[in-house]
Amino acid sequence: MSRFHPIDGRPLPAPTFVARHDALARARRAAEVQRSYRRTSFAERAELMRRTAALLRERRDPIAGTMADEMGKPISAGRSEVDKCALCFEFYADEAEGYLAPRVIESDAERSYVAYQPLGIILAIMPWNFPLWQVVRFGAPALMAGNGFVLKHAPNVPGCAAAILGALADAGLPEGLAADVMVDVPDVEALIDDDAIAAVTLTGSTRAGRAVASLAGRALKPCVLELGGSDPYVVLADADVTRAAEIAVRARMVNSGQTCVAAKRLIAVDEVHDAFLAEVTRCMKEAVMGDPHDAATTLGPMARHDLRDELHRQVTASVAAGARRVCGGEPPDQPGAWYPPTVLSDVAPGMPAYEEELFGPVAAVLRAKDTDDALRIAADTPYGLGAAVFTRNLDEAERIAREELEAGCCFANDMVRSDPRLPFGGIKASGFGRELSAEGIRAFCNAKTVYVAR
Predict the structure, then answer these.
(1) Which of 70, 95, 226, 279 is catalytic?
(2) Residue 342 and residue 362: Cα distance in Å, rounded?
(3) Whole-structure pTM value
(4) Domains of the chain and CATH, by start
């Protein structure tokens, strides 16, 4: 992993990792605290969530500045991320008790129902790209359910990890219930194996997900995995091409293109392909690349130099295999992990731009013969996180989203995104399990059958 600042390329110090025995001690302390915390009322937990939300809003600008400095997120996007986290805390403060209310089931018993109870301490292995939201997305429902967690965050965002844990602590979360365990990768196995850990959640690469799922399975512990994606956006012949392009580019460029659920393969049927490609290119060229601390910037640097270099390798290899570079595709000659907005056309099977996840500001535009061909191309991926379809026929749009697109989150005429009210997660190589909504809070609960005989 590169140790250079994403904005100006200056050398960065090596991360400071917690020793394995200290991490295990923190996990065990969290388990002790959780045994009493689980007996608090929903009202007490909800008040804690609301105080945390208020503190995040008060600290929005400095937290967004930390994101910009540590991983290059444009300051305006960082502010929006903090606001979304505050809303998520408030959402679960309002909804958790209803989501976890006993579910009565008629049987031959006097009473029979499902009761939802917390599992314990969740080991959370989180990435750098949404350094606050990824933590809150699992953390708010976990805490409202009566769980605690230990956070193994990405080593390049220690300030962001401290910001969210600090807000929780200052809001009154019991000391030790949410613990920082910034360990090196080899020590993750010891944490998963330890009896203090009840379950695991990971957001990251498919490779990391396979490794964590294997360890969790061996330890017989449940896990939720939100992994990579190669999300198709299908544009049909009757679509509003300009609107579809604008939405697709916005979805492609979220977080400078560094998000699992970004639009990555833009598939247009033959009748509208050329017009769509022209509109996509126009929109991509409008991105303002610059200092992420500047409010006018919409495209910051990539988070790490090695990630920028890997993206450029994928672009170069795709062009060598026959893709056409419509714009961008050459890193600027300046310090930092910069990559320009890039459009590739004539993308075909066998190219990295077709087969692999492009984690950066690169849009791959593909041509399909017709609707059936477009849906075939959309399904031709090992991933299944998000997908979208664009057409003026709303009945057909809904049918395709519901029945044809193969992903966990399928949108019609809009960009795929997470929302606390809706379940979020993928299938196939994009992982399993769900976050957010009722499914997210129940993911780390024991769905206990209670049967009372007559």
Answers:
(1) 226
(2) 5
(3) 0.97
(4) 20-227+428-452 (3.40.605.10), 231-412 (3.40.309.10)
